[in-house]
From TrEMBL:
Organism this protein belongs to: Parasphingorhabdus halotolerans
GO molecular function, one term: oxidoreductase activity
The organism's taxonomic lineage, starting at the top: Bacteria, Pseudomonadati, Pseudomonadota, Alphaproteobacteria, Sphingomonadales
UniProt similarity note: Belongs to the short-chain dehydrogenases/reductases (SDR) family.
Name of the molecule in the record: SDR family NAD(P)-dependent oxidoreductase
Keywords linked to the UniProt accession: Oxidoreductase
Cross-referenced Gene3D superfamilies: NAD(P)-binding Rossmann-like Domain
Entries under Pfam families matching the protein: adh_short (PF00106)
Transmembrane intervals: none
């Protein structure tokens, strides 16, 4: 897919981190961008900077997502690109024993469900609604009608202690990549997924510098945190390369996560 001003894109979680970096890279190519996020202040500011549109969207809510796509398409046209970066995480053991009184606690099911709702179901919801819109477009000269990039995590394969919900949600994103790519193949819509390692995103922004340094030192090479723009470059490679389809690609500096 050739990226230019005739192409529109929707980026979920687009107000910061991996999503913002991807939006910037797409905008540099002339692509018109719509940012889906809950953070209005950051989202509006970035949309203004890039000449795009911000849509306040909760990916766990059908009506909110539908309204977001309606606003985006009314402003920048039907998207040919969807990049799913919206996501959350938590760290809770399946069961644990209290150090104070020995009582046993279990992972609150509502907390588990919420991570699945955002990371897995939210991603699928946006894929389905975006792909339905892409089907209304004619294929481009290279044959592509659309391209979708999802965000999983190395936790899909190397889940750490306390990451049962997070790993399950991201493992689900990996697991559905190929079947969705096959579902959409006859319609010339490609689907790929990136599995980022330890990246310098807002999730780590509040961590002490020694913690950030220690996390970076765990990476074989380069021994540092990933940079959001590196994610963005891989996302654009997936979008621009028409033979890139149905793949799940780790972007992690060769790290394999230890249990904790």
């Amino acid at each position: 897919m050739e990226l230019n001003s005739n192409i529109s894109a929707v980026i979920t979680g687009g107000a910061s981190g991996l999503g913002a970096a991807t939006a910037r890279r797409l905008a540099e190519k002339g692509v018109k961008v719509a940012l889906f996020d809950l953070n209005e202040e950051k989202g509006e500011a970035l949309a203004k900077e890039l000449g795009g549109v911000f849509c306040k969207v909760n990916v766990t809510d059908d009506d909110s997502v539908e309204a977001g796509f309606e606003k985006a398409r009314a402003t920048i046209g039907q998207e040919r690109i969807l990049v799913n970066c919206a996501g959350i995480g938590n760290a809770i053991k399946t069961v644990s024993r209290s150090k104070e009184d020995g009582s046993i606690k279990h992972f609150p099911l509502d907390a588990f469900k919420f991570v699945i709702e955002v990371n897995l179901i939210g991603t699928f919801r946006c894929i389905a609604k975006s792909a339905a819109g892409m089907l209304t477009l004619d294929p481009l000269e290279d044959g592509d009608r659309g391209a979708i990039v999802n965000t999983a995590s190395v936790a899909a394969e190397d889940g750490q202690i306390g990451q049962a919900a997070y790993s399950a949600s991201k493992g689900g994103v990996v697991g559905m990549t190929l079947p969705i790519a096959r579902d959409l193949s006859r319609e010339a819509i490609r689907v790929n997924t990136i599995l980022p390692g330890i990246f310098d995103t807002p999730l780590l922004a509040g961590a002490p510098q020694q913690v950030r340094d220690a996390l970076g030192a765990m990476v074989p090479y380069p021994p540092r945190l990933g940079v959001p723009d590196e994610y963005a470059k891989l996302a654009l490679c997936m979008i621009e390369t028409s033979y890139f389809n149905g793949e799940d690609v780790r972007l992690d500096g060769a790290i394999r996560m230890a249990p904790r």
